């Protein structure tokens, strides 16, 4: 039985589901939009400021039948956001094919560190220094969201911006615990470099998931 479950996970027909919930997208281009979030466990990128570290260990999140995930998602919204953890740790093909058959719009939030799988209407790339994105995801990203924890992150963001496509939207987002210090720096930076936009975690201000 264990081998069978492992095979299903490898095929993307089961995923280590951490949580799923209907809420308002709080970040980036689609902020303010009602969306159903599917948070998949498993991540070895290891950002020290990650606010969902409980997602890192996939073993504590039970493998869940993807058909059931799809059915749950389709009840609530036509916009589905797949996040993590790092969702591209797993094969996203079966999940997104099923969502698309239901007429859903599929969005992903990813560090881009692993092979891009799945059918996506919107790719939010949030690159991390520890594991750089693949070249494919740079070229396919619709939105680049760089987290600013300290001043050196502006140079990192510019390097990342040089690698994405010309139509990719560029966002700088303060790391939540540093927001009071970092927001003024981002405001000044965006005013001096207007190709960038400010992204805030508005869901945290609204006190929603």
From TrEMBL:
It is an enzyme of class 4 (lyase). S-adenosyl-L-methionine binds at residues 49-51, 85, 126-128. Substrate binds at residues 24-26, 39, 83, 209. [4Fe-4S] cluster binds at residues 43, 47, 50. It comes from the Bacteria. Its cofactor is Mg(2+); S-adenosyl-L-methionine; [4Fe-4S] cluster. Its EC number is 4.3.99.3. The keyword Lyase applies. It catalyses: 6-carboxy-5,6,7,8-tetrahydropterin + H(+) = 7-carboxy-7-carbaguanine + NH4(+). Binds 1 S-adenosyl-L-methionine per subunit. Signal peptide: none annotated. InterPro entries: 7-CO-7-deazaguanine_synth-like, Aldolase_TIM, rSAM, rSAM_sf. One of its GO terms (biological process) is tRNA queuosine(34) biosynthetic process. Keywords: 4Fe-4S, Iron, Iron-sulfur, Lyase, Magnesium, Metal-binding, Queuosine biosynthesis, S-adenosyl-L-methionine. Residues 40-112 form the Radical SAM core domain. Catalyzes the complex heterocyclic radical-mediated conversion of 6-carboxy-5,6,7,8-tetrahydropterin (CPH4) to 7-carboxy-7-deazaguanine (CDG), a step common to the biosynthetic pathways of all 7-deazapurine-containing compounds. Homodimer. This is 7-carboxy-7-deazaguanine synthase. It comes from Aquimarina brevivitae.
């Amino acid at each position: 039985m264990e081998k069978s479950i492992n095979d299903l996970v490898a095929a993307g027909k089961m995923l280590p589901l951490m949580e799923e919930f209907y809420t308002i997208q709080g970040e980036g281009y689609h902020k303010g939009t009602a969306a159903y979030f599917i948070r998949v466990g498993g991540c070895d990128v290891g950002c020290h400021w990650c606010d969902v570290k409980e997602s890192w260990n996939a073993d504590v999140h039970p493998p869940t039948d993807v058909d059931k995930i799809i059915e749950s998602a389709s009840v609530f919204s036509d916009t589905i956001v797949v996040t993590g953890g790092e969702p591209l740790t797993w094969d996203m093909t079966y999940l997104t094919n099923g969502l698309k058959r239901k007429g859903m719009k599929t969005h992903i939030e990813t560090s881009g560190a692993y092979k891009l799988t799945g059918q996506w209407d919107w790719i939010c790339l949030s690159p991390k220094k520890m594991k750089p994105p693949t070249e494919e995801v740079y070229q396919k990203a619709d939105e680049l969201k760089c987290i600013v924890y300290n001043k050196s992150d502006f140079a990192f963001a510019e390097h990342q911006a040089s690698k994405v496509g010309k139509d990719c939207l560029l966002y700088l987002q303060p790391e939540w615990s540093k927001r009071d210090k970092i927001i003024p720096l981002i405001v000044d930076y965006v005013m001096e470099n207007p190709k960038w936009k400010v992204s805030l975690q508005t869901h945290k201000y609204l006190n929603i998931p």
